[in-house]
Amino acid sequence: MVRVIEIDLDELGVQLPRAEVGMVIAQPFVDFTDREPFTLKPELRDAAMAGIDATLGVALERVHGAEKTHFTIFPECTIPGLMGFDRIAAAMADDGWPTGTIVIGGLEGLTRAQFVELSRRPNTTYDTEGSSLDHIREDQWVNCCVTWAKLDSGEVRSWIQIKVQPAFVELRTEYQSMFQGQSIFLFKGKYEGVNAPYRFATLICFDWIGVRDQRRVWEWLLHAIEQLAEFKEAQLPLNWLFVAQCNPGPSHTSFMGQVQPFFNQVEFPSVLREGACLVMANVAGNVAPGVAKEYGQTALIFAANKFMKPENQPTYCAGGEFQRPGNQLENLTDTVFRERGACIHSFRQRNPSCLPPGAAGREFALANATVHPFPGAEDPRTPSGHVPAVVKWVNDELDDSEKSLESKYPQWPLAGTASDAHQRSVNALRRLNPEAQTKTVLVATPRTSSVPDAWRNPQSDGVKHVLHTFSILGAAGYQTTFHGNGAQATILKGGESVEVVAVIGPSHEECDKHVMDQLPDHRGQLLVISRDEDNTSWDPRMRTLFDQAAEPSKEFNFTEPTSAVIRVSYQDVLNAYRDAANEAALRESIDAAIF
Prior knowledge:
Layout: E1 3-8, E2 20-27, H1 45-61, E3 69-79, H2 81-93, E4 101-107, E5 110-111, H3 112-119, E6 124-126, E7 140-142, E8 144-150, E9 156-162, H4 168-171, E10 177-178, E11 183-190, E12 197-204, E13 211-212, E14 215-216, H5 217-232, E15 236-237, E16 240-244, H6 253-256, H7 259-263, E17 271-272, E18 277-281, E19 299-302, E20 316-317, H8 320-323, E21 333-337, E22 343-350, E23 366-372, H9 389-398, H10 405-408, H11 415-431, H12 434-444, H13 457-475, E24 479-482, E25 489-493, E26 496-504, H14 508-518, E27 526-531, E28 565-569, H15 570-579, H16 583-594
């Protein structure tokens, strides 16, 4: 069985606000040595210490707007051993660190000797019965997490909890084995100003799905609370369950498959979970912000249906099929942080039990959700502020080196020049404001939802088409200014300016109609470079889409909406780029087509 040890924080003077708490979660990038006890690689240790300082700094800064950061979380195996433990304990002991606060963090693997030294730190508690030092062999190592609390007296206390169930990588060891813990700490206290209890506990990654004596580890936790409730002839809440992860597949069926049973009030009915917050804190999938296929997806999950679905909210999303294949959490409130690279999350978490019934109580689960960088990182996705969904999506797309025209046609004469133009375009698009980035994508792709969380391959192809188009125009020497004010950019030829739209769709005709619908109030010259699904040309001489008798006007005519619109196929522009021996030749070909 798994023993549950109750710690009364109320006796120690630690109270929490009932309506909402301030929370900060570190999401660092980690990499480990390939030998037990799987410590952080030496070259990452200084960065890990700097990451601790940065995370604690964000917690002190309180950008989330709460009176203090009540919970600061570090995922599994992210704190570099004894020196990391000491850094956190010293920071919390400082007079500037507020009382009534809690820090939870997972330490890297410890040798038996290191764990002995850790257990002897002042004001430190561990399970001396189930995890007695006499039980730990010399050939065993320890994976543990620590819960620190700063009391009203200013004293800092800590509780060490050893991982119960090893993950697969921890089972496949050559020389040593992971010591398996026997217990979980369950912390209880009272909310400020009311005689109402709170409870929270922490599981270490695989403990969320691991089985001990025919019960999941989380079931042992609920079983223990149920027994306490029966003894008191009452119902007792579990308000937070923190799962500190180093998990490459945070949305894997094995992990998500336990969420619904955990919140199922039919089992363990005396353990109230309607107002519970399940905190899945994971490490990063990249050393910098960006796309990651593994790790990340730090999330908070609620059973309560009082919260509004966070559609197109900055910083975090509602999960769904794209984030959670199989949509296993469709009946729950899922809040997933979009950023899977290294960053620090800060927010206020609302207690659903405190929301009034009906429309008056409809709120989002999180407030003031912001993303912060680790030292040395500067990126639009970690601005120490909120991150609109479009900013995250567009910047992820711009990271893709395969969207460079040079990468597709490296043998063509102007590949190097186009590469420079590509980078200028990427830099400019990153700097656009969110509204302009949204407009840039919407005008590039017909039939596109205005919600970036719904954007997939067609919109990604739209960004690539924009980059390829303006790389060619840049290689031709046109001065380009991206602005997203209707058209995507303006190019200059001498003293004349021309608005430019790059659009990709099933047909040239649909692209043309889409642009006209998107820009009904356009004035002045407009160049539309369209690409159909087969990348075909409509005129080998790079003439306009429609075989017009008259040349296009440079002035807008109110009685003729398509006056001053120049239509060119991308295929013809690409052919000109392919055949040009130098920048001057490319400029001459394009000038002939559009001026």
